[in-house]
Design brief:
Layout lengths: L1 E8 L5 E6 L2 H10 L11 E9 L2 H14 L2 H6 L1 H13 L1
Antiparallel strand pairs: 1-2, 1-3
Length: 91
Amino acid sequence: MYHVYVLKSEKTGRSYIGHTKDLNKRLEEHNSGKSRSTRHGRPWHLVYYETFSTRQEAMKREMFYKHEYTGVAIILQPRLFLLTCVTHSLV
């Protein structure tokens, strides 16, 4: 199983979208500074995730979120973000 996840930085308020096979391990890597792109926003908290059976499906969803929605939309309007994603996936 693969997961697409959204993290939120407690320090900066920034969001981060990624995909992984091991969600707990990846969150630990983000919070330990092993990921260059999230090193300065620690600590990070998991705010949302979805599970997929293949890596290709997870990557496709990650790209959708990264290109269709901004981190600002996720932080400022989380209900709208989730509702829009659910509605879009049903269409």
